[in-house]
Amino acid sequence: MTLLPDLPQNTALLDLLRQQGIPQERGAYVYEGWELHTHPDLVERLEDLAPQWPVLAAFGVPVLAAKGIAAVVAWGMGILLVRLPEVPAEPLEPAEPCPPLTDPGQGWYSLCPWQSELPSAESKRLLSLQIQHALSYAASLSEDDSIDWQGRPVQAPGRHRGNAKGRRPSRDKGRRQGGRGRRR
To answer: Distance (Å, rounded) from C-alpha 51 to C-alpha 111?
Structure first.
């Protein structure tokens, strides 16, 4: 597990988490060198909602990020904070606010990670969609074009004109491309 980068887009979140963070070396609830501030069931729920996504650590709190920018935070016993450009869609039940992040205009919204009013499969589907939306939105806040939204290096498209470097030349110069022509 890696740590959430100290980027300008993460400043408000990291400042808040830093205030409540307690360094801890050993114990039942240690998370990357910090006291865990998220219920273990909620950590598992976050991993279940975004199974292909690496969970980062920030002062004892699990975070999902895109291009290093925080997108989703699992907090306490029942709060998923999602970074979105707009209020999450109905019928998702909000969780208790988490000021100052969830103050108007801050771009963070609290959601109940369990959505008890919805069937389990529907709850998981809708929350997973919101998490993917939050990850895409967080990636759009990045100025780094050298990595994709999942943090993998982006390679410039290659040029394929003529005999491009690295291409193997045809063995039989007399054949047309595709190997189905007459021999000259």
So the answer is: 19
